[in-house]
Every structure is written in structure tokens, then in C-alpha cells.
């Protein structure tokens, strides 16, 4: 038996989680205050570059379908997959944030990566709600295999214009306006859906 959809959707935003993002929205608002005095005798801080990540290679069939620049990451699911998603069936599913300390972060997924396939589920043409629900329904402890491509420029453009899902539905019933801010419609009306999560 399928779980009640409203219950499944409530899981999506139940708790705020610490997601890492390349854009710090508070940085522009918070002045930097340095309470430590730096002396000339202090050794310079050396920041080492992270080692170049070597990703697993997709099988030849997946490489033929998704292209040669496809990376594959594989990890065991913890309490969550640790990804916040953006996009939708109109533009593709993208990583919008990665929860710090999760296997997804450790395996090298990054903000702006387009998710092409998770386990056996093709994510091309999938609506964002279905992508989120698919990731939520993977049991804790199961192996998660993700095929992705780095497309930060495309992701940035999508975030700037707000595109994601795009499809049409036709109503099969009537709905009268219950409050001044409600939407009334009649049977047979057609609506364009541009976001399946809000």
C-alpha cells in the first residue's frame, strides 16, 4: 500500500538541515570582526588545495546514454541522502545544496551537478517532487549510486530565471472560492504547473 501523499510531502521539509552552498547570503550582511591580533611572529597560514577527486566510471551502456563526462558516486544512505534539489522536468534535476558531513559530500557531489540517474531511476524528464520522493524512499543503509555531470553554469542560469517543472493539468471537478485568496475553477480548466513542491 502506498503511503499517504500528504504524509510523504511533510517529510520533505520537516527539519532545517545545514546545507553547504557556494553562495553565502549572510556574508554581505555581516561585517567581519577579527578579535584576534595577528603578530609578525605568527607563521603564515598555509591552505592546501584539496586532492583531485577520482570518480568511479559508469558502465559503458550508461556512458553511451549520458556521455563521457559523466561521473559516478556511490555511498550507503544514512538518515538522508543529504541533497537539496532544484530544477525539474523542464530543465533537469540539479544539486542545489549538500548537507555537510554526509556521504554525498564526501564522495564529491557538488552544487550545480545535474543528476542524471539514481540507482535504476532515470532522472531526465522527472518532476522535482518525484525526484525528492524517490530519494526519500530509499531505505536507510541501502547503496545509492548517482550518475551526474558538473553543469554549474546551467544551474546558475536556472536559479536566476526560476525555471524547473513545466506541464499542464486539466481539472476533473469544480472548486468554488472559499476565501478571498482562494482559486476557483470549473471542470475542464487547464493549469500549467511550474513547481511541484510549493
Automatic annotation (TrEMBL):
Record-level GO cellular component terms: bicellular tight junction; plasma membrane
Signal peptide bounds: none
Gene3D superfamilies assigned to the protein according to its UniProt record, in alphabetical order: 2.30.42.10, SH3 Domains
GO biological process: cell-cell adhesion; cell-cell junction organization; establishment of endothelial intestinal barrier; positive regulation of blood-brain barrier permeability; protein localization to cell-cell junction
Renumbered residue ranges of the record's region Disordered: 1-21
GO molecular-function terms, A-Z: cell adhesion molecule binding
Annotated PDZ domain residues: 69-135
InterPro entries: PDZ, PDZ_sf
Protein name per the record: PDZ domain-containing protein
Protein's organism: Micrurus paraensis
Amino acid at each position: 500500500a502506498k503511503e499517504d501523499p500528504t504524509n510523504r510531502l511533510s517529510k520533505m521539509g520537516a527539519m532545517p538541515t545545514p546545507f553547504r552552498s557556494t553562495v553565502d547570503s549572510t556574508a554581505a550582511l555581516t561585517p567581519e570582526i577579527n578579535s584576534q591580533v595577528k603578530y609578525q611572529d605568527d607563521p603564515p597560514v598555509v591552505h592546501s588545495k584539496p586532492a583531485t577527486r577520482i570518480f568511479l566510471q559508469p558502465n559503458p551502456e550508461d556512458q553511451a546514454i549520458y556521455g563521457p563526462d559523466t561521473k559516478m558516486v556511490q555511498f550507503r544512505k544514512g538518515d538522508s541522502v543529504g541533497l537539496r534539489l532544484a530544477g525539474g522536468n523542464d530543465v533537469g534535476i540539479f544539486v542545489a545544496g549538500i548537507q555537510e558531513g554526509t556521504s554525498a559530500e564526501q564522495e564529491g557531489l557538488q552544487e550545480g551537478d545535474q543528476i542524471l540517474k539514481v540507482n535504476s531511476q532515470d532522472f531526465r524528464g522527472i518532476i522535482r517532487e518525484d525526484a525528492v520522493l524517490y530519494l526519500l524512499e530509499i531505505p536507510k543503509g541501502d547503496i545509492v549510486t548517482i550518475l551526474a555531470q558538473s553543469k554549474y553554469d546551467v544551474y546558475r542560469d536556472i536559479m536566476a530565471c526560476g525555471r524547473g517543472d513545466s506541464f499542464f493539468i486539466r481539472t476533473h471537478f469544480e472548486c468554488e472560492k472559499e476565501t478571498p485568496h482562494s482559486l476557483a475553477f470549473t471542470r475542464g480548466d487547464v493549469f500549467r504547473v511550474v513547481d511541484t513542491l510549493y
